[in-house]
From TrEMBL:
Key word Zinc present: no
UniProt miscellaneous comment: A single active site specifically recognizes both ATP and CTP and is responsible for their addition.
Protein name: CCA-adding enzyme
NCBIfam families, per the entry: PRK13299.1 (NF009814)
Function: Catalyzes the addition and repair of the essential 3'-terminal CCA sequence in tRNAs without using a nucleic acid template. Adds these three nucleotides in the order of C, C, and A to the tRNA nucleotide-73, using CTP and ATP as substrates and producing inorganic pyrophosphate. tRNA 3'-terminal CCA addition is required both for tRNA processing and repair. Also involved in tRNA surveillance by mediating tandem CCA addition to generate a CCACCA at the 3' terminus of unstable tRNAs. While stable tRNAs receive only 3'-terminal CCA, unstable tRNAs are marked with CCACCA and rapidly degraded.
Protein species of origin: Lactobacillus kimbladii
Amino acid sequence: MLKINNLPPIFTVAFPVLKQLEQAGYEAYFVGGSIRDLILNRPIHDIDIATSAYPEEVKRLFPKTIDTGIKHGTVTVLNDGASYEITTFRTESGYQDFRRPDHVTFVQNLAEDLKRRDFTINALAMNRAGEVIDLFNGLGDLQKHLIKAVGDPMKRFHEDALRMMRAVRFMSQLNFDLESQTKEAVSDLHQLLSKISVERIRDEFVKMGTGINSRDAFKIFLQTKLSESVPDFAGKSDLLAIYPKLKFNPSMETSLWSIIIILLKISDDQIARFMRDWKNSNAMTEKVRKIVTLFDLISEKSPSDLELFNAGKDVLLNTIDVAHILGQPINSEALVDRYTALPIKSMSELAVDGQFLIANGIKPGPKLGQILNEIKQKVISGELANSKDDIQDYLQQIE
Ligand SMILES: Nc1ccn([C@@H]2O[C@H](COP(=O)(O)OP(=O)(O)OP(=O)(O)O)[C@@H](O)[C@H]2O)c(=O)n1
Ligand SMILES: [Mg+2]
């Protein structure tokens, strides 16, 4: 049995929680992603605990708890400034619509609980002594860099079809391969994905697309036809086939969406609809639209100073990232230099404002906005210096 000595603090601070459960006569283990990430030496973001205690018993044992998913057996325990999801050993039964079940069956032992988990590398448990419980050779698969379903992959994907997206997501994040039978099951069952909410599919898609090896994962995403069961991708595999040939793996979500939109040749007036289909936020949509717009400008010709100003630094840098990933030859240094040399980077840097125009005899109204806009444009293009005096002279001229 693998025994891990010197557990990192994120685990050791949780010892009292496990101990308390054990002293009350229950079993308790660390389970799931945290053990996988510990062994892979990856950053650990949260610790999940599985226990034989029922949720009501967990709530009785700890002063500060939150009913996170009490129906599913999960209680969040707050202890010593940290929080833990404590889930009663369970098996999922009564799957309707291939989504997460609305009711679960609690089981008596850890083995029954681990059996219903998605992949062998996620079905590891560890006790307080650092001993790893590995009933499905998850350690072997970690070593072989394999994503492999626990037991019968068809059953696991029928239980929760999202697991098929999780498979390609972990491939990308961990740079692992997909075990052949598991892959076959994804190919057979990809259509079940249409039963899953778009939000959950999107979250996994973004994790895949921003993982360290999204290009190879995307290949499998296409090969297994998972791509045919997500919003707006059906029938587009020829366009999406460019993704695995990208120069680099995207690391930002904004870059990912921009690249997908560019590959799918989605026109400007369809970007909002596409982003809505994927249930993306308005803020994400706006940013992506700006990036795609600037990318088109940069690819065709050189953007004007005004266009660079309108884009802003963040969007410019993000667009350069996108061009870099797509292998689009652009002179990024020159673009950044031109941006840096802009006389103003935002309206607040303009030497005058509406009040100034009013003080100089311009009447409030639409005309004022128009004049202010003209001043902005002339300052950006260098026709007019960004100083009160020069702008005052200009105002006198146009009267
Ligand atoms: N559809 C799912 C989702 C989760 N799990 C199990 O629940 C654990 C925790 O789930 P989650 O936090 O979603 O995934 P992690 O593996 O912890 O990955 P991440 O690092 O993204 O949190 C998983 O390890 C796995 O054992 C599962 O079997 N099937
Ligand atoms: Mg997790």
